[in-house]
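Morning, I've got a small favour to ask if you have a moment. I've dropped the whole record in just underneath, so have a look.
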Amino acid sequence: MRAAAITLRPYTVLAINGRPDSADMKQKLLYKTQKAYMLFSLLILVISAPLFYFLIEGMYLEETEETLELHRKEFMTYHAPGLSESDIPVWNRMSRDLKIEAATFPLKRDSVFQQLYFDTLDQEHEPYRVLLSPVLIHEKPYHLRIRLSMVESEDLITNIVLLFSGIMLLLLAGLYGITRYFSKKLWHPFYDTLNQIEHFEIDKNSPLVLPETPVEEFQRLNTALNNLASRNSLIYKSQQEFIENAAHELQTPLAIFQAKLETLMQQRLTPEQADVVLSLSGSATRLNRLNKNLLLLSKIDNQNYGGKEIIRLKDVIEKMLGFFTEQAHEKRISVTVHAACDGETSSNPVLAEIVISNLLLNAIRHNAENGVIIISLEKTSLSISNTGPSTALNADKLFLRFSRPGTASHGSGLGLAIVKKIADLNGWTISYTYCEHLHVFRLAF
C-alpha cells in the first residue's frame, strides 16, 4: 500500500466560480394598482379628447349659425325696408361681413356653409361661416351674404391637446403623489410586519411581536401571524426536546447492546454465528453514530454551543488530518493541502472541528480507490475537492438530513446536514460544485 501524501505547499489557485442566481424584479402591490389607475386614466383621456373636440366644434358651429341668423333678422327688420338700390354699393363698401349681391342664381331658402376668404392684412386664408339668404329690395331679388370668422381647426386642436396634456400631467402627478403617500403612511404597518416575518427564525427564542394597527385587514393579518408563530414555536420546541430526550434515552441501551455484542465476539462461535454478530455490531455502530449526530443537531438547534473565539482553520485541518490518515491510507488516497494563510475566523472550536471532520470524512468515504483530495485554504474560504462518482450530485438535496451523496448506503446521512447547520449558525456559506471531475465543497467564512 502507498502511504497518503499529506503536504503543505504554497497556495495554488483552485478556480471554483459559481454564478449567482439572477433575482427577478418584483413590483409592489401599490405600484401595480397605480399602474392600472394610470393606464385607465390615459385610456379615458385619449378617448375623450376627440369626443371633446367634436363636441366643442358642434357647439361652436351652432352658436355661430345662431349669430348669423340674428344678423339676418336685424338686417331684414332695421335696414332692408329703408334701403334703395343706389344705397347698395355704399352699404357693401361700409360693411365688411355683410354684403348685398345680385341674384345671379335662384335661391329659395337660406343656405349655411363653410368658406375660405383671403385676409389681406394677415396674408392668409381664414375660415368663415357664411349665411346666404334671399332678400327683396324694392321688389327686386338680391342675395344677402353674412359671414363670421371662425377659429381654425388647427388652433382648436392645438388648444385641446395642450389642455388635455396639462390635465393628464396633473392627473398622473396626483396619482403618483397619492400612491407615495399611502405607501408610506397607510402601508407602513404592513411593511413593518413583512420586515419582522422576513427576519423571524423559529429556532431562535425571540418571539414574534407585531404592532397594533388601525387598519382592520392588517390587524387580522398580525393576529393570525402571531398565533401561527406561537404554535409553530411550541411545536418546534417540543420536537427538539423529544429528539434530545430520545437520543439521551437511547445512549444507555445502545451502550449495553454494544457491550453484549463485544462479549459475544469473545466467545467461541461458529462462522455463521460470527457473521450474525459482526452484522449486528456494524448496525449498532451506525445506530450509535446516528444517535450522536441527532443529539448534536439538537444541541446546535438549541444553541448549546456558544463561546465563539478566533480560530485558525489551518491548525484545525492539520489536527483533523491526523485522525483520517489511516482511512485515506486504506483507500490509497493522496491528500494535498494548499494553504497560503491561516484562515482565521470566528467560531466555537468544537463546531469548527466537527465541520472539518465531516467534510474530510465525506471526501474519503465517497472517494474512489487511488483517488485524490485537494484542500485549498484561502483568506475567506476553504475548498475540499475529491474524486469520486463521475457525475455531479444533486446539490438541492445534498445538505438535507438523511440525504446521502450518490448511491452510497453507508453513513447516517446527517454529516453534511450538520455542516450546513453549523455554517448557518456561524454565518458561513457552504456550497457544492462539480468541476473538472472533482466534487468541490466550498466553505466561505
About this structure: The longest strand covers residues 124-137. Residues 244 and 298 are 6 Å apart (CA to CA). The chain has three domains: 29-186, 216-299, 306-444. The radius of gyration is 47 Å.
